[in-house]
């Protein structure tokens, strides 16, 4: 679908969240890292919403509470203490994190606040043991340049990261609280980005500034982009947790597509003269129709003593199967609502039936029982009475929302750029003061000192990389965008390997390995430095780098020497290379006899196949040319 974004009036605002690389967490002295072993501590809680100082309850918080969820928390003693468990008040704000946030704000030309006040932001999805997230504004205003355009920054804030969700079974969600409390900087732009590509470029520009500090964590999950997307006739929708930069533009494109398709459904319902009053909360027990069904899901539910409830959606026939974005239909959105509000596995609707073992005859009986006409749709679920009723109530609510067009909501990003319903948009009642952490005064002298020693800005660094390390524009840009930008200069200044090779490995090779599932986050900078030292000293070949990196990712504390020995990638001597070449020449004597020196190219490929990772190509080239000349002369 080709869309003129300026014509439809698209507006996007970004919220960039980046973990900071500090020695301690934001409100305690615990190590800010994740643990992989079995938990040493577990505890179970249920969170409840509380009123704000104005006596209001945040709708998003109330939504989560109504789901009746219990939270099982997992922890270990190295990365978690009583602060994360909400058994002890928070300690003072981490000044290392404050300083990094101020540096970023100043690089964005922001205005630091005079005094930092920590606030509580209500969060009741279980990702924080306290039921709120601690956050504080560090600076206001500022801007970032995108293709010559000034994109205003609304604020730079510092907050604690949330616990990480491990799994969800029934009404119990399991979280690990090792990530909880890791310092997280938030940078919010004004909603002045008018195309998906412009939003992606803005995210890239902000990411470059963050990486330029050298004080941010790297790897998947350490940076997340939230997108606030709206079109004039649609609604403001927040998309949370876009992890890959390349998905920013795609997620926006698909959200615009979703909203435009929802507006088409709204217009069609107007033509069909559907009203909110005509969509009734009347739930029929249709269990008897499916007592002998071949549908396994329904069959199991009935055998477990559950019921099948149905609701009529007048004049909705054909609309529930309308695709809003790839793989997501209006029926999918209703199913998401039913899952969250009713805790059911999914829904069935007549736009997709007969299917799943449900027959034509069962569909006819269903329609007759609920008095559905040909232009009507019927939705049904199989679960206990309470869950089924809650699920269908959510379906009815979503159906009524289609009459208005696009509902305001918070959606979660999927790995393919599509999104799913998460919860209603939060209200103004979710923020209130944190009384356990004292304010911090920021004096002008401190700010001036930071401003005088700011890191090099990306634009200037780009020019320097090209001049100082003789990188072409493409490779210099890739280095600048890479999480290894600072490491590149450290390695290039010490290693005998060419800067071009180092840059290519830290960008293109790393990207390819990550795409292949190699866990690069487990490789320490020291190991990468040692690897280039080995290559520069002739102890291993540059062709062996991908294999060695892959091995190191599986052996976190191992040395490069151990990797080369384990993989059999210790460099061959010139004499050993010569022996391999002589053997190959004898094996291919007929080829050499027929083609003479012209056989060099084919022979080079055969030799490299045998010695790849154990000899550099230049050495092989030199020895092969010499031995081939000798062989041709003798024969």
Report what the structure shows.
With 635 residues, the chain is an alpha+beta fold. The protein has four domains: 5-270 and 429-433, no CATH class; 275-402, 2-Layer Sandwich (Gyrase A, domain 2), CATH 3.30.1360; 456-567, no CATH class; 574-634. Helices cover 40% and strands 20% of the residues. The strands form five sheets. Strands 1, 4, 6, 7, 8, 9, 12, 13, 14, 21, 22 and 23 form a twelve-stranded mixed β-sheet that branches. The longest helix is centred in the middle third of the chain and has 26 residues, at 246-271. It is globular and about 95 Å long. The mean pLDDT is 91.
Quick summary:
Helix content is 40%, strand content 20%.
Descriptive key words:
635 residues; alpha+beta; Gyrase A, domain 2; 12-stranded mixed sheet
**Chain-averaged pLDDT:** 91
Amount of helix: 40-55%
As for the number of domains, it is: 4
Rounded to the nearest angstrom, the radius of gyration is 30 Å
Count of helical regions:
21
Shape field: globular
Distance between the termini: 67 Å
Q: How many E-type strands?
A: 24
Strand-pairing-aware structural class: alpha+beta
Largest sheet: 12 strands, mixed
Oligomer: single chain
Low-pLDDT stretches:
none
Strand content: 15-25%
Helices and strands, with pairings:
Blueprint: H1 5-8, E1 11-19, E2 41-45, H2 59-66, E3 70-75, H3 95-107, E4 111-112, E5 115-116, E6 118-122, E7 132-140, E8 143-146, E9 149-160, E10 164-169, E11 172-176, E12 183-189, H4 196-212, E13 223-230, E14 237-242, H5 246-271, E15 283-285, H6 296-303, E16 307-313, E17 323-325, E18 328-329, H7 330-342, E19 348-349, H8 360-370, E20 377-383, H9 385-402, E21 409-413, E22 419-424, E23 431-433, E24 440-441, H10 444-452, H11 458-469, H12 473-481, H13 485-494, H14 499-515, H15 525-536, H16 545-554, H17 560-567, H18 574-587, H19 589-595, H20 600-611, H21 617-634
Parallel strand pairs: 3-11, 14-21
Antiparallel strand pairs: 1-12, 1-13, 2-3, 4-7, 5-24, 6-7, 6-23, 7-9, 8-9, 9-12, 10-11, 13-14, 15-16, 16-20, 17-18, 19-20, 21-22
Helix pairs in contact: 4-5, 7-9, 11-12, 12-14, 13-14, 13-15, 15-16, 16-17, 18-20, 18-21, 20-21
């Amino acid at each position: 679908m080709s869309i003129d974004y300026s014509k439809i009036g698209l507006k996007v605002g970004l919220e960039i969240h980046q973990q900071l690389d500090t020695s301690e967490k934001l409100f305690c002295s615990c190590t800010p890292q994740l643990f992989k072993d079995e938990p040493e501590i577990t505890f179970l809680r249920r969170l409840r919403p509380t009123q704000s100082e104005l006596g209001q309850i945040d709708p998003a918080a109330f939504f989560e509470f109504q789901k009746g969820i219990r939270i099982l928390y997992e922890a270990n003693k190295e990365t978690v203490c009583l602060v994360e468990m909400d058994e002890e008040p928070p300690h003072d704000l981490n000044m290392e994190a404050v300083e990094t946030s101020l540096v970023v704000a100043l690089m964005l030309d922001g205005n630091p606040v005079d005094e930092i006040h920590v606030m509580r932001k209500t969060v009741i999805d279980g990702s924080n043991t306290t039921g709120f997230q601690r956050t504080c504004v560090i600076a206001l205003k500022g801007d970032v340049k995108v293709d010559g355009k000034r994109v205003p920054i609304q604020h730079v804030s510092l907050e604690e990261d949330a616990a990480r969700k491990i799994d969800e079974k029934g009404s119990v969600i399991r979280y690990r609280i090792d990530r909880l409390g890791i310092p997280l900087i938030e940078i919010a732009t004004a909603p002045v980005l008018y195309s998906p590509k412009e939003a992606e470029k803005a995210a890239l520009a902000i990411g470059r500034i963050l990486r330029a500090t050298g004080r941010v964590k790297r790897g998947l999950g350490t940076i997340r982009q939230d997108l606030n997307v709206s079109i004039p006739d649609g609604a403001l929708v927040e998309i949370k947790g876009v992890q890959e930069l390349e998905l920013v533009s795609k997620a926006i494109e698909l959200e615009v597509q979703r909203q435009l398709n929802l507006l088409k459904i709204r217009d069609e319902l107007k033509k069909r003269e559907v009203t909110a009053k005509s969509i009734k909360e009347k739930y029929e027990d249709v269990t008897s129709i499916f007592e002998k069904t071949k549908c396994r899901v329904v069959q199991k539910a009935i055998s477990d003593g559950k019921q099948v409830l149905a609701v009529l959606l007048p004049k909705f026939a054909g609309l529930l199967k309308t695709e809003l974005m790839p793989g997501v239909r209006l029926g999918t959105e209703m199913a998401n609502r039913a899952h969250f509000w009713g805790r059911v596995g999914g829904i069935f609707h007549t736009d997709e039936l007969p299917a799943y073992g449900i027959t034509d005859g069962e569909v006819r009986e269903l329609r007759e029982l609920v008095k559905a006409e040909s232009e009507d749709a019927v939705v049904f679920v199989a679960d206990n009475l309470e869950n089924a009723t809650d699920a269908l109530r959510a379906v009815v609510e979503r159906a009524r929302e289609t009459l208005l067009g696009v509902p305001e909501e918070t959606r979660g990003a999927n790995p393919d750029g599509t999104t799913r319903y998460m919860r209603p948009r939060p209200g103004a009642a979710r923020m209130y003061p944190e009384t356990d952490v004292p304010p911090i005064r920021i004096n002008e002298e401190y700010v001036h000192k930071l401003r005088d020693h700011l890191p090099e800005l990306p634009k200037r660094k780009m020019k320097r990389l090209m001049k100082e390390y003789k990188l072409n524009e493409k490779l210099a840009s890739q280095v600048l965008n890479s999480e290894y930008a600072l490491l590149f200069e450290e390695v290039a200044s010490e290693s005998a390997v060419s800067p071009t090779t180092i840059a290519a490995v830290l960008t293109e090779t790393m990207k390819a390995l990550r795409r292949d599932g190699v866990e690069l986050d487990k490789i320490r900078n020291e190991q990468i430095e040692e690897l280039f030292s080995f290559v520069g000293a002739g102890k291993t070949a540059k062709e062996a780098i991908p294999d060695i990196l892959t091995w190191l990712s599986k052996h976190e504390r191992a040395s490069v020497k151990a990797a080369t020995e384990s993989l059999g990638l210790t460099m061959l001597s010139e004499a050993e290379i010569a022996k391999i070449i002589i053997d190959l020449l004898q094996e291919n004597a007929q080829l050499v006899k027929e083609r003479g020196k012209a056989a060099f190219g084919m022979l080079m490929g055969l030799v490299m196949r045998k010695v790849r990772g154990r000899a550099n190509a230049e050495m092989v080239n030199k020895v092969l040319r010499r031995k081939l000349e000798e062989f041709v002369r003798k024969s």
